[in-house]
Write a structure and sequence with these properties.
about 375 residues; mainly alpha; 13 helices
Length: about 375
């Protein structure tokens, strides 16, 4: 009887171990697939953004200089930073040595800071385009855009490669007990406060207040536009009634310049909305990480499971794959450009090359101009014939 019980216990234990091993194997494969999908989406999606802007003249505006630069930074995140983190999840240890560990940590801090500084530059660009439209052509020139991009790419070096390779970022205890098969980003308290403030808290504060001003001004302009449209409709109706009573023919003169300004204002509002959604997605992806990073760095006695660190890192990395999806969903110009670029990429014969796209855009603009301009002249010629 005892032998039967022992056999049953051993069988149940073996079954439990097998179930646990099967569950771990399934979770490992699922995690590997998800992480690989994020890497591939980040590379291909941001590459699509860069190629689409290069191929379509309509997208070559100053704002999209920052968008292309941001996409390039996200590609580098996917190609330089994510694979090392993926290897740690795959092998459960660090296999590249301490020098590559410092390079990986430096690149992680550098490209994260670069991304948020790009978004800060975009918010400043949108601020001048909507809140101060008269100063926008004077302030936001191509030269100013390149200066801002240079500062965006160079300034994060001060909190990434320089302090990490010099050993200023961590504690002396960690430097003494550092192991070759581990790559922890153990920082001291001054570095945690300074780096998080420069790379996240200060730029995010600027962006939040900038976009509050942008949306406040956009709402004011939309209300003024609706009021103006209502007044114009009442004046038009009144003039028609007066003209009918007097038996005279009333000419409703159009103003193409005013129409172009209204269309331009609507485009600026749509661009601001899209970029505001991108900023919100960035904050949602990286805010949990920086809260976790700052709290664990300042608290010496705090303990946390390793899986929390993994989730925080990869939630932030997912933002690099999210921006092209936002462009495709919320911006019609990017959506059409993506369709055209993908059609040319997957078809053996490209029916519409880049030059053909530009020619079609020129014809569209010329045709729309011909439709707008001759309206008063046609009405004048009709009056002359009468």
């Amino acid at each position: 009887m005892d032998q039967v019980n022992v056999t049953r216990n051993e069988t149940s234990n073996a079954t439990g171990v097998e179930d646990q091993e099967w569950t771990q194997a399934v979770m490992f494969r699922l995690r590997t697939a998800v992480l690989l999908l994020i890497v591939i989406m980040a590379v291909l999606g941001n590459l699509l953004v860069i190629v689409s802007v290069m191929r379509h003249r309509k997208l070559r505006v100053i704002t999209n200089y920052f968008v292309v630069s941001l996409a390039f930074a996200d590609i580098l995140v996917a190609m330089v930073v994510m694979p090392f983190n993926f290897s740690v999840q795959f092998y459960n240890e660090w296999i590249f040595g301490p020098v590559i560990c410092d390079l990986w940590n430096s690149s992680d801090v550098y490209f994260t800071s670069t991304s948020i500084l790009h978004l800060c530059c975009i918010s400043v660009d949108r601020y001048y385009a909507i809140v101060k439209p008269l100063k926008y052509p004077i302030k936001m020139t191509k030269k100013m855009a390149f200066v801002m991009l240079a500062a965006t790419w160079l300034s994060p070096i001060t909190i990434s490669y320089a302090p990490i390779f010099m050993g200023w970022y961590t504690t002396s205890e960690y430097m003494r007990t550092r192991e070759l098969n581990q790559c922890e980003f153990k920082v001291n308290k001054p570095y945690a406060v300074i780096s998080s403030s420069i790379s996240f808290w200060i730029p995010c504060t600027i962006m939040v207040f900038t976009y509050l001003a942008i949306f406040k001004e956009a709402n004011r302009q939309e209300k003024a536009l609706h009021a103006r449209a209502g007044n114009a409709m009442l004046m038009h109706r009144h003039s028609r009634e007066v003209g009918d009573k007097n038996g005279a023919l009333h000419i409703n003169a159009t103003t193409p310049t005013k129409d172009r300004n209204i269309l331009k204002m609507k485009r600026e509002h749509k661009a601001a909305r899209t970029l505001g959604i991108i900023m919100g997605a960035f904050i949602l992806c990286w805010l949990p990480f920086f809260l976790f990073y700052l709290s664990t760095s300042l608290c010496d006695s705090c303990t946390y499971p390793e899986v929390v660190t993994v989730i925080m890192f990869w939630t932030g990395y997912f933002n690099s794959a999210l921006n092209p999806i936002i462009y495709a969903y919320f911006n019609r110009d990017f959506r059409n450009a993506f369709k055209n670029t993908l059609a040319c990429a997957f078809c053996s014969f490209c029916r519409r090359s880049a030059s053909d796209s530009e020619a079609m855009e020129r014809l569209d603009r010329r045709g729309s101009a011909q439709l707008r301009v001759p309206i008063p002249s046609r009405r004048a010629s009709d009056l002359a014939s009468l």
